[in-house]
Amino acid sequence: MKTGLSLEEAQSLLLSQAAAVPTEQLALTQACGRVTGKDIASAENVPPFDRSPLDGYAMQAADMQGAGAECPIQLSVIEEIRAGFTAQKKVTPGTAIKVMTGAPIPEGADVVIRYEDVKREKDSLFIFHELNKGNNIVPAGEDVSKDEVIVRQGERLTAPRIGLLAAIGKAAIPAFNKVKVALISTGDELVDPSEQLQVGKIHNSNVHSLGARCQQLGAEPLYFGIVPDEKDVTAERMRQALKKADLVITTGGVSVGDFDVVPATLKQIGADVLFWKVKMKPGSPVIAAQKDGKLLIGLSGNPAAALITFDLLVVPVIKKMMGLCQQLPMKITAVLANDFAKESPQRRFLRGKLEISYPTNRIRLTGNQQNGVLKSMIDCDVLIDVPAGSGPLMAGQKVTAVMMENVLV
Ligand code: AMP
Ligand code: MG
Description:
About 20% of the residues lie in helices and about 30% in strands. It is α/β, with parallel strands linked by helices. The protein has four domains: about 1-20 and about 180-320, MoaB/Mog-like domain (Molybdenum Cofactor Biosythetic Enzyme, Chain A), CATH 3.40.980.10; about 25-45 and about 150-175, Molybdopterin biosynthesis moea protein, domain 2, CATH 3.90.105; about 55-125, Molybdopterin biosynthesis moea protein, domain 3 (Molybdopterin biosynthesis moeA protein, domain 3, Beta Complex), CATH 2.170.190; about 330-405, MoeA, C-terminal, domain IV (Beta-clip). It has a seven-stranded mixed sheet, sandwiched between helices. Strands 7-4-6-5-9-8 form a six-stranded mixed sheet, with no helix packed on it. It has a five-stranded mixed beta barrel with strand order 20-22-21-23-24. Bound molecules: adenosine monophosphate (AMP) and magnesium ion. Adenosine monophosphate binds near residues 202, 206 and 372. Its cofactor is Mg(2+).
C-alpha cells in the first residue's frame, strides 16, 4: 500500500484501475448526458439536396444580366413549390419557379431571388437587380457531408450532437451504460435529514451532496444509507454495495481516530488497498482499495472535504467508467481578488469563483475555507491550487486553479 501520494499520483493510479462500463443501444430521447459508445458517421448529406434558404424565385443568373431599377427584366413564373415537394418542371431561360424556404432547387435554376426584391403581376415576374450564380442556394451537405464523423466515441451526448444524430437519420445509438455509484455514510453521529436531531447528532449531508454530484455527471447514485462506526456492519454494507454498484464510495472514518473503521474494514473484506492519504488539504486521509475488480474509495467525512476530494479524485474515475475521453479537469491561471491570511505548509485547495475580467481573469474566494463548511462550495467553480510551503496569499497574486464547473463536459 502506498501512502502520502501527490494528487496527480493518486488520480493516475485510480484511472489506471478504472475501466469503461459496457454500452447499450439507446433511443435519442433517452440519450441526453450519456456518452457515445462508437464513432458515428453520416450515411447521407444534410441537407440531402440543394435547397432554398428563403421564400423567393429560382431562376438562371444569366437571365438577370442587365437588370436595374429603371430597366427590370421580365420572366414568366411556370410553377410554385413548397418545402417537402419537388418541381415537376425545369427552369429554362426566361422562366422562374416560385420556391418556399426549404424547397429543393428546381433543375436548371442556379440562383434564388428574395420574394421582397421582385414585383409579380399574374405570371410575370420583374427583376430589378442582378445576382451571381449560387446566390441564395444552400448546397447539399452544407451541415454534414456523407461519411463525415459527427460524434466520436467518448463524447458527451449534448443537445447539438443529439440533434445532428437525428438529422442523419439515427433514432438510436450505442451509448455507455449509466455508472452505478454506491454511497455509504459512516458515522455514529449521523441521522437522515428526514429525522429529528437528538443531542450530539447531525444530519447526513454528504450522501446528498455526493449523490447530487453523481446525478449532475450523468451517473446513477445508489444510496446505501448510514452505518455506525463498527467494522462488521460497515463490512456487510460494503459487500452489499459491491454486488450492486460499479464503484463504492464511503465518507467518514478514514482518519486515525479510535472509531475510524474504514481502513480496517477494507482489509477485513479482503480488499487490496491501493493507497491511503494524499498530500493535500482538505481531505488528505482518503483511502482507495480494490475488490472483485471494483474500486472502493473512502473519503473524509467533513462535508467540504468530501465534496472536494470527490470532485478531484472520484469524478475523473466516474468519467473514465462512463466512457468519457476527457477525464481530468482543466487548469487555468488567474489573479486572486482577495487575501488569504493563512500559511499553507501542505498543498491546499481553496474554494473560489472565477470572474471573467480584462486584462486578467480574477478568482474571488467564496468564504470560510474550513473542512466542515459546505456553504463556500455553493459558488465554487474553481479550486485554487496553493503549493505546499506557501505563505499568506495577497490580492493581485497570480494563482493556478482547477476548473470545477465543467462537470458536464
Ligand atoms: P470523520 O471523517 O468521520 O472523522 O468526520 C469528520 C467530520 O465530518 C465530523 O465532524 C463528522 O461528524 C462529519 N461528518 C462525517 N460524515 C458526515 C456526513 N455524512 N454528513 C455530514 N457530516 C459528516
Ligand atoms: Mg467519523
